């Protein structure tokens, strides 16, 4: 089998250097490392130009995008390249997600053990965040009536050899490229957030997604709580609602839309959550754009935006 690694990077050269070094020191090298440079403005382009021309035990490919398309656009570009190649499996990760030395070797062994048939669309690792399992990275998504249930794997399940799930993130996802072709590309228009949930649910229609807790990736991002409104809040809410709409159906979409209106836009939001008018306007725009399915980068809520009073 031929294995590719797909990394998306933007202005995190220090992290990218560590990540590439980790792949240099694998017990089994990949056949290709593909780096999508999402129009970095630091020294990343120069570094990658040198890196691409250095000899290695694997092939190298750098694709430089003309503008920052967010993680969603970066992964979409990488999937598109690999889906038109002769590689069999791709390990997908961020530029600050570090494999252990045996990660690729163990994933390839797992393919032979669990995915010899045609019914497995992806394998995925544990994601350790500062040494603790980041349970939001491996979940099960289901719809009962108008309600969506999006439940992380339990800590008890992290003791199992293998678990069936249907939601993974683009960190430590080892994806069968044949299944990826059938699932289509990640939704580039999401920019950030929920592209992996939407894609997972499509991928799960092509075959099983198996979570192997004993294989690990390290992604030390901290466990932040989303209680502060920033530019990212717009994309999180818009894309969440769109995912509910596309995969949960109209009842689930309307139910969640009503919940979010009450929590983030209505008078109770101002009273109980002390949200300002500017913040409530952001969430209102996110809801409007989910209803109309307006994708892409918003003209106001661009990277770096934050409310004037915060």
TrEMBL record:
Domain of life from the UniProt record: Bacteria
Gene3D superfamilies: Spore Coat Polysaccharide Biosynthesis Protein SpsA, Chain A
SUPFAM superfamilies: Nucleotide-diphospho-sugar transferases
Keyword S-adenosyl-L-methionine: no
InterPro entries given in the database record: Glyco_trans_2-like, Nucleotide-diphossugar_trans
Pathway: Cell wall biogenesis; cell wall polysaccharide biosynthesis
GO molecular function: glycosyltransferase activity
Keywords: Glycosyltransferase, Transferase
Domain Glycosyltransferase 2-like: start-end pairs: 5-158
Any Pfam family: Glycos_transf_2
Entry's family note: Belongs to the glycosyltransferase 2 family.
Name of the protein described by the UniProt record: Glycosyltransferase 2-like domain-containing protein
Organism of this sequence: Bifidobacterium scaligerum
């Amino acid at each position: 089998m031929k294995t590719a690694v797909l990394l998306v990077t933007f202005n995190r050269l220090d992290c990218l250097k560590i990540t590439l070094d980790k792949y240099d020191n694998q017990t089994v090298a990949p056949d290709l490392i593909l780096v999508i440079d999402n129009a970095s403005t630091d020294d990343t382009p120069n570094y990658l130009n040198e890196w691409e021309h250095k000899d290695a035990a694997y092939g190298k490919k750098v694709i430089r995008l003309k503008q920052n398309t967010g993680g969603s656009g970066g992964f979409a570009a990488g999937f598109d390249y690999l889906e038109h190649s002769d590689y069999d499996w791709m390990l997908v990760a961020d530029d600050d997600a570090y494999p252990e030395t045996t990660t690729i070797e163990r994933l390839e062994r797992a393919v032979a053990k669990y995915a010899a048939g045609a019914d497995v669309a992806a394998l995925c690792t544990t994601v350790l965040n500062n040494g603790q399992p980041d349970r939001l990275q491996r979940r099960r998504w289901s719809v009962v009536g108008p309600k969506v249930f999006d439940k992380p794997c339990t800590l008890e399940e992290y003791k199992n050899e293998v678990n069936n799930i249907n939601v993974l993130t683009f960190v430590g996802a080892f994806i069968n490229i044949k299944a990826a072709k059938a699932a289509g590309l990640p939704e580039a228009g999401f920019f950030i957030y929920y592209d992996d949930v939407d894609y997972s649910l499509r991928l799960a229609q092509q075959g099983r997604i198996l979570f192997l807790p004993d294989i690990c990736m390290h992604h030390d991002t901290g466990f932040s709580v989303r209680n502060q409104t920033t530019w990212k809040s717009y994309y999180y809410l818009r894309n969440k609602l769109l995912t509910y709409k596309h995969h949960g159906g109209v009842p689930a979409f309307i139910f969640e839309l009503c919940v979010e209106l009450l929590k983030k836009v209505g008078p109770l939001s101002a009273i109980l959550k002390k949200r300002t008018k500017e913040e409530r306007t952001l969430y209102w725009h996110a809801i409007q754009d989910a209803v109309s399915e307006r994708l892409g980068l918003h003209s106001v809520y661009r990277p770096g935006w934050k409310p004037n009073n915060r």
